[in-house]
Amino acid sequence: MKKKKTLRNTWIMTAVYWVVGLLCMFWGKLDHIFAYQLKEVNNVYALALLIILLLPLLFSILLSLKVKPPRLICNPLVTAIYLLVVIAAGMAYNLQDIIGYFFPIILFVLMTIIAVFYALAKTVRNKRNGKYYFIDDKDKKKCSSFWDAYRRYYVMGLTYGIIDGLLTTVLN
Questions:
Q1: The pTM is what?
Q2: How many angstroms separate the CA atoms of 108 and 112, rounded?
Q3: Could you give the CA distance from residue 99 to residue 78 in angstroms, rounded to a whole number?
Q4: Phi, psi of 159 (to 5 degrees)
Q5: For residue 27, is pLDDT > 70?
Q6: What is the rounded CA–CA span in Å between residue 160 and residue 62?
Q7: Which of 32, 87, 99, 148 is deepest in the core (most CB within 10 A)?
Q8: How far apart are alpha carbons 109 and 90 in whole angstroms?
């Protein structure tokens, strides 16, 4: 049952990567044709974007063929970071400059700093009777130590922070 859920989530995220990547490519092409009126576009950035989009597709195919992936790859944080990589490649294609790769990196660094303080505040706030708890929506899990609870809050804060930052960047 868990393998089917992982496979379904992997294919959904692969589709999200491709939609975001193709939208970035389409947006970049339109931007260059209408706004800058450029006839030539450097296709090295488009090739880099396509290679970045092929990696999750290959991973999804391998997972469908019953190849057991490392647990690290199926982590939501890795998924969010890879989405940043796809957006960075799309921005580099749109700007036709390598500087496009730096905007999502700056967003990631900012979200990691915010996640450190978020995790610290949530960990200290959810200490009861000398024990630390990880509270996520309705679930309340007892953690073995401060660092276990802190790590869980940090990953949650970083993942949600990156996703919120991406949505804010894209929708504004």
A1: 0.61
A2: 6
A3: 23
A4: -65, -50
A5: yes
A6: 28
A7: 87
A8: 19
